UniProtKB/TrEMBL annotation:
Belongs to the class I-like SAM-binding methyltransferase superfamily. TPMT family. Its EC number is 2.1.1.67. GO terms for molecular function: thiopurine S-methyltransferase activity. GO terms for biological process: methylation. Pfam families: TPMT. This is Thiopurine S-methyltransferase. The keyword Cell membrane does not apply. InterPro entries: SAM-dependent_MTases_sf, Thiopurine_S-MeTrfase, TPMT.
Amino acid sequence: MANTRTVLDAEEYPDTEVQKNRVLTLEEWQEKWVNHKIAFHQERGHQLLKKHLDTFLKGEKELRVFFPLCGKAVEMKWFADRGHSVVGVEISELGIREFFTEQNLSYSEEQIMEIPGAKVFKSSSGNISLYCCNLFDLPRANIGKFDRIWDRGALVAINPGDRKRYADIMLSLTRTGFQYLLSVFSYDPTKHAGPPFYVPDAEIKTLFGSVCDIHCLEKVDAFEERHKSWGIDYIIEKLYLFIEK
């Protein structure tokens, strides 16, 4: 493994097209939850988010915060405990139920009339609402606009061919003055097919740059023992903050 400084200074990988035709179905994602293949879940929460939380929130109160492809992210409770309103979307009903169970939160569930077969799970406190459906169907539910979006494990999980459609939905959900925090990974995509998929800097600028000023807050060496099985020898996590132009 290269030393940390060398890794963090690594150039973007030149072949950005190698994963473009990769497709995972919703059923495959649901199977990951059933089979507990959820190494992407962080039981202690996302440490870079925790480090930059004050920058993200700016001391503002009662924000609406959106979690795309939320899984059972513990950060949802962080925001709710600070008085913010949290909305998430997740295809796995199992993941949503595990969130409420593991956080010791009582909840109700109801059908979403606008999306056949979809449900929304709401905490009894009323400040966490998690929609169980395909993210691309979510706009039909009219969930309103958001002050903050925390995109961790979402853009990097969307099939590469769907990124433009995804980004358009994300931006359509933003209020004036929004902030959008994004976590992505950089690695050699010829050695690992994803997910998480490799999202180069240039594509982030293409997807969001017309609406947002893009700031890279931090790059960290994210390599763990489990990544050896992917056939890679480095992986960098990058945290970006998007601010409305």
